[in-house]
Design a protein that fits this description.
The chain has 145 residues and is of the alpha+beta class. The chain contains 3 helices and 6 strands; from the N terminus they run ββααββββα. The protein is elongated and about 60 Å long. The chain starts with 16 loop residues before the first strand and ends with a helix. This is Periplasmic protein.
Length: 145
């Protein structure tokens, strides 16, 4: 969803917002991200356009920051809501100098740090998740034998 609220008249450059070293021109919400939004963030405004509109507002107000300094796939909104995003180069949009603009593809929402304490340290959280899934698979495998 591109930013609908911005009315740019008589200009040739598409509207974009800078996030780190990327110039975001479009936000795409995946089905998985929408499902996680409903489960972990909010249950009232759950449409793709509602989520994308919220993300645009956060981008414009500079409320989205990278979770890790070196990695560029996990981001937080207001130091609370954690989400995973990927970037792809937009085939249709460039800035006035011909530099590429990016689409931000929101892969999933991990949840709020204020509600899920494990999200404060994602590396520990992911190792715990792998361990718990492996243990579940081992238990299920034992039951089948």
């Amino acid at each position: 969803m591109k930013d609908k609220h911005t009315e740019r008249w008589n200009t040739y450059e598409p509207f974009y917002v800078v996030l780190g070293d990327k110039k975001v021109v479009d936000i795409i919400i995946t089905n998985h991200a929408r499902a996680r939004w409903t489960d972990r963030v909010e249950s009232e405004k759950t449409g793709f356009s509602d989520i994308a509109e919220y993300m645009w507002e956060c981008l414009k107000e500079d409320r989205i920051v990278s979770y890790y300094r070196n990695e560029q796939d996990v981001y937080t909104i207001d130091d609370d809501l954690v989400f995973v995003a990927e970037f792809s180069i937009s085939e249709t949009d460039t800035d006035l100098l011909g530099n590429p603009l990016h689409k931000m593809i929101v892969v999933t929402f991990l949840g709020r740090m204020s509600e899920t304490m494990e999200l404060r340290d994602l590396k520990t959280y992911y190792s715990w998740l792998r361990h718990s899934r492996r243990m579940t698979l081992i238990k299920n495998n034992r039951k089948r034998r």
